[in-house]
Amino acid sequence: MSHRLYEQLSESVSKHQDAALITITDHPDVSVVGSKFLLQKNGTLYDESEFPLELHSEIIKYCLPLLRQNKTKTVQIQLNGKLIECYVEVFPVPSHLIVAGAGHVSEPVAEIGKMLGFYVTVIDDRLKFANDERFPFADEVVCSSYIDFFRNVPITPKTYILLLTRGHKFDVVSLQELLRREESMDVEERTKYIGMIGSRRRIAGVFEQLKNKFADHNFVNIHSPVGLDIGAQTPTEIAISILAEILKIKNSSSGNSLKEKISSYSKLKFRERSKK
Q: Where is the XdhC Rossmann domain (predicted)?
């Protein structure tokens, strides 16, 4: 790969932009085999050499759908009677986990979130807490006011937000800022998950206020109290409960025990696979 193409790929990854690295693996002209292209989700294509525009058009036509579907595979392109084979390697943007608040629960949330493949951002308005020493597993630790942060942070369907601040008032102002932004967005553009910690009574009071201020928001992406009911007590257990709920939403799963798919062990029948 040329240095220019490598720099372009690195920039796409650092900016959290989906990209695909395309390599010509078969071509009638063997000197072309191994040539690489970089395709971005907006349809922009970069190459290492000055290939014909008609080849660019065909690569975009066949490879862009794969990029948008996050599929890595080999494709074959017919161009002027020539068969060209390309290997399309997709570099999808990881889901973004934003943890507002740098308390005891946030530490295992950030660590386990990173283990699950999320790009993890921790935000707190106290420099004493918002630092790399407390969150060595986070990709990004931000010291900022919550309102300023949530007013500007990019929000996509791959963004998952946790409001775990030290005071409920900070959770509420953060949630209000998020809802204010989301009301101007199409439903499919909004984050799939906003989790807010709190008791049922406190949450009832919050939503009594919110439903009047944000009448156009259906609140379906808000999860509060946060987490699945697994009897969590310690910060680590609570973190697992929260992240299990996020995975449930992310993977469009039920969250039920797999055991429920088996009605009775006594009725199970073991069938040995036949050897071919």
A: 97-246
CB 248 within 8 A of CB 228: yes
Measured between alpha carbons, how far is 151 from 145 in angstroms, rounded to an integer? 10
Number of Cβ within a 10 Å radius of residue 77: 17
pTM: 0.77
Is 213 exposed, middle or buried (CB count within 10 Å of its CB: 0-12, 13-18, 19+)?
Answer: exposed
Inside any domain, residue 268 = no
Range of the domain at 74: 3-91
Q: Please say whether the beta carbons of 246 and 195 come within 8 A.
A: yes
Q: Using CB atoms within 10 Å of the CB of residue 175, give its burial: 0 to 12 exposed, 13 to 18 middle, 19+ buried.
A: buried
Task: State the pLDDT confidence band at 24, using cuts at 50, 70 and 90.
Answer: very high
Min mean pLDDT across 148-152, 180-184, 213-217 is at 213-217
How big is the chain by its Cα radius of gyration, in Å? 24
Which token pair is 65?
A: 């759908």
